[in-house]
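<instruction>
Derive structure tokens from the sequence
<data>
Labelled lines for chain and fold:
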Amino acid sequence: MNNESYYKVGGPLSEKDRSYVKRQADNDIINLVKKGEHCYILNSNQTGKTSLLQHTSKKLQEEFACIITRAISF
């Protein structure tokens, strides 16, 4: 049994966090990138954008050599 907490308060969930809930957006982004499309993750604060980015990037890096991301704040 893992002694680490299942819950995390504040900040993104890493690819190792067991509490991450895979969404349809995970599959959508991966499939679009595989087709050569650019993807944008746009939403309000504290909605899981960074967690989504980290999880999909990890998955894509397993198949491709390099993934480039860019964060833009307004």
Remarks:
- Helices lie at 24-34, 49-63.
- The longest helix spans residues 49-63.
- The two ends are 42 Å apart (CA to CA).
